[in-house]
Write a structure and sequence with these properties.
α2 (36-42) crosses α3 (47-58). The chain is 28% helix and 26% strand. It is α/β, with parallel strands linked by helices. The protein is globular. The relative contact order is 0.14. It has helices at residues 3-7, 36-42, 47-58, 68-81, 93-99, 114-118, 158-168, 215-221, and strands at residues 13-15, 29-31, 59-61, 104-108, 122-126, 143-149, 169-178, 181-182, 188-189, 197-198, 205-206, 209-212, 226-233, 237-243. The strands form 4 sheets. Strands 5-4-6-7-14-13 form a 6-stranded mixed beta sheet, sandwiched between helices. It binds zinc ion (ZN). Zinc ion binds at residues 21, 23-24, 26, 61, 63-64, 66.
Amino acid sequence: MPDHAKTLSPLQGDARLGYRCPVCGSDSWETRSLWLVPLLARMEATEKEALEGSRREGTYCRRCGSNIRSAAVAWALQRSFMWPDLDRRWFNLTSFVRVYRRLRVLEVNEAFVLRSHLKRMRHTMADYPDVDMTAMPYADESFDVVVHSDVLEHVPDPEQGLRECARVLRPGGRMIFSVPVVFDDMTRSRQDLQPVYHGPTGTEYLVSHDHGANLWIKLMAAGFSEVRIFALEWPAGLAFSATR
Ligand SMILES: [Zn+2]
């Protein structure tokens, strides 16, 4: 284990975030583990990046089980479709899916605890390996929303994956997603680097790219016309919204 991972204390227990869960509305959070630290160390991450990644993945809502990463996706989804001064104290994904139940949602691989909520809308699942994000079996302009959470870093050809998401969205439709981003660096392929895997034990997937500060350019080049970054909290709780 690298030195910086050994120096981190295993933070566990209550976490005070100062905001309510945008999935269920609870304000009770806990930190369960720092399992990501050694993994990020293998990706040559700095201690700061490792701590951010660990907070993003390992801090959970006690009521619904959402971690900060998926909570950020839920927040970006609501902010993208609701009025801009949305007050996070009074709204959450549970109420959002009731109001927006007619939205046609494509979920590209399971977005963690969000799936049970997204299924209350007009929901289609595109799970790997049955559906390949770079060649999806859906008609052009057939969805209002595409959601994916920490999928893009595993796609061997992420540009093609993004073009496919743009293709299946109607004009004005939105792709809401999270992906690990190191904003101090540019996106790079990991093809010739030490292999890194993410995912639940037993179903870990190879990371094909480390995404960086030029991610927005790839979104524009794939056919999106607007890119917004939502910070549920900075920097651990970021999610993106790209409008077709
Ligand atoms: Zn919650």
